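Auxin repressed protein structure dump, as promised
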Amino acid sequence: IFSLDEASSMAMPTSPTTPGTPSTPVSARRDNVWRSVFNPGSNLATKGIGAEVFDKPQPNSPTVYDWFVQIFFLVQLFACMLAWITL
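structure tokens r here:
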């Protein structure tokens, strides 16, 4: 069927190599789309407002923590009321 020369010249196929990690071409990359949203200096609508609004809260105004505690308390209160009603 096969001669010795033909059989020895037939090599086993090699395993395929693992492809590399795909990457986006440099030309297709864009700037961060959120940069203009979270960078107050680049937002033209707020450029003239400044620190007097954002960095100086009104006296005795509630903080985020105050709002959180109040909402957490109300949720717990409603949960207790609901449990009491369903008894």
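The two ends are 89 Å apart (CA to CA).
lmk if u need the other ones
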